[in-house]
Design goal:
The protein is α+β, with helices and mostly antiparallel strands and 431 residues long. The protein has helices spanning 42-46, 51-58, 66-81, 87-118, 123-129, 131-152, 172-196, 244-247, 271-278, 284-292, 305-330, 378-395, 402-415, 420-423; strands at 2-7, 17-24, 27-35, 161-162, 165-166, 212-215, 226-231, 234-239, 345-353, 356-364, 370-376. Residues 427-431 have low confidence and may be disordered.
């Protein structure tokens, strides 16, 4: 007998999507992560535009990750043009990434995922029984936004990032005030461990997770020029300039978003992947949270990505304080952006934004106008892996009611913190 499990609208995610699973008896014949957002033509929008204009345009791909899109876009342009940046610029850009990480992870863990884990339909219901936890999450979210505002000029769609540096460097007084707010945020990190320590994370998909993330080239987690892919105990390395050999994007009939596979196998990007491949960099309170909350690597439970996000959020608060202390101690300097000369060139870059590895590449003409652009977002890379994990849920849940399976499928999908809107870019119909 054939039956179909359908989730018409996946709630508590960014964008519009659904899930369709078809079973023939106990055999899973189809799993589809349906993406029916309208196609977004950002790569086409920047074609023909001056390279100075594109960063402000692509930041509109995503509000939550607008700083990550801006800075990754700049890195691709700087790599193409051969523009060096100072250590101060690198530290300030990293600080902005930590702000984004704090804001995004606080939102997802407590507002979108935690209701699933404690049996509530929404954060509104959750606030009725855990008001202190919701207020704590709001404070952490605000802290992340404040960090981004100080560095990028605005919390959403920043205006302060330019090729080679910043339009305006934050002043010492701003960093001193920011230090006070970050220090206060450490108490909320302690409270995060207490709240999540009482939560039972379900193991509804007992399936190995193939991970990909950047190999960091600084003290943090978010910047690098080499991609790592874990595969059954071995690690494959790919230069970022060859990122298309990792992503291998292709179209599927039921989705407006492309799918990615490496060596015909799916992979995931995001907090769980980063901590699996680079977790030795995590210490302090974040390491304490890792151990207290039972994060295990290599992972076999995708739902633990929610816990990995919480660990990363704490890591980002601690790392932000270290960066601000260093900038204050060394003395923040007024710096003009690095000089550059437009010429025909091409370059690519990748960074780790909250949901995973983000790729950008540009080709420029001799006037600095964009001839072509490519943007591959984390959610687009995660779609195939999400389907594989959903398939594992169904296979391992024989006898479970369709209603409960539908709930579990949604928990798995939300574990990736998908930004469905960001995953949909220009596609070409297969010939």
């Amino acid at each position: 007998m054939t039956r179909t499990i359908t989730v018409d609208h996946l709630a508590r995610v960014e964008g519009h999507g659904g899930i369709t699973v078809v079973l023939d008896g106990n055999q899973v014949s189809e799993v589809q992560f349906d993406i029916f957002e309208g196609i977004r033509l950002f790569e086409g929008l920047v074609r023909g535009r001056s390279m100075e204009d594109v960063t402000g345009i692509v930041s509109r791909i995503c509000a939550i990750c607008s700083h990550g899109h801006s800075i990754t876009s700049l890195l691709a342009l700087e790599n193409a043009l051969g523009v060096p940046v100072t250590q101060q610029t690198r530290l300030l850009r990293e600080l902005a990434y930590h702000g984004s990480n704090i804001e995004s992870h606080a939102l997802h863990v407590f507002f979108l995922a935690l209701p699933d884990l404690v049996g509530h339909p929404s954060v509104v219901s959750l606030a009725g029984v855990m008001p202190d936890a919701v207020r704590m999450a709001l404070r952490l979210k605000k802290l992340g936004n404040t960090i981004q505002e100080v560095v990028g000029g605005r919390a959403v769609h920043p205006v302060n990032y330019v090729i080679g540096g910043f339009g305006r460097v934050p002043g010492t007084d701003e960093l001193v005030a920011l230090k006070k707010e970050i220090t206060a945020g450490l108490a909320d990190c302690e409270r995060t461990m207490e709240v999540l320590g009482t939560v039972n994370v379900p193991s509804i998909a007992r399936e190995p997770v193939r991970c990909a993330a950047l190999l960091p080239e600084d003290e943090g987690l978010f910047f690098g020029n080499t991609i790592l892919i874990s595969d059954r105990g071995s690690v494959v390395r790919i230069p970022v300039r060859d990122y298309r050999t990792l992503t291998n994007e292709h179209c599927v009939a039921y989705s407006h978003a492309k799918h990615s596979e490496h060596d015909n196998k799916s992979y995931m990007v995001g907090a769980l992947a980063r901590l699996t491949l680079n977790g030795d960099r995590v210490d302090g309170m974040a390491r304490k949270a890792w151990e207290k909350l039972g994060l295990a690597v290599p992972p076999v439970n995708i739902v633990m990505n929610n816990i990995a996000q919480a660990v990363e959020m704490i890591y980002s608060v601690e790392r932000s304080l270290r960066i601000v202390n260093r900038l204050i101690a060394e003395g923040i300097r007024e710096e003009a952006p690095a000089d550059y000369r437009p010429h025909a060139c091409a370059g690519a870059a990748a960074t780790e934004v909250p949901r995973g590895t983000l790729f950008y590449s540009y080709e420029l003409d001799d006037q600095g106008r964009v001839l072509s652009a490519d943007v591959i977002t984390p959610t687009a890379q995660n779609l195939s892996n999400a389907e594989d994990q959903m398939r594992a849920v169904v296979k391992q849940s024989v006898g479970v009611s369709d209603g409960l399976l539908a709930q579990w499928l949604q928990i798995v999908a939300r574990a990736y913190d998908p930004c469905i809107s960001c995953s949909v870019h220009v596609i070409r119909t297969a010939e």
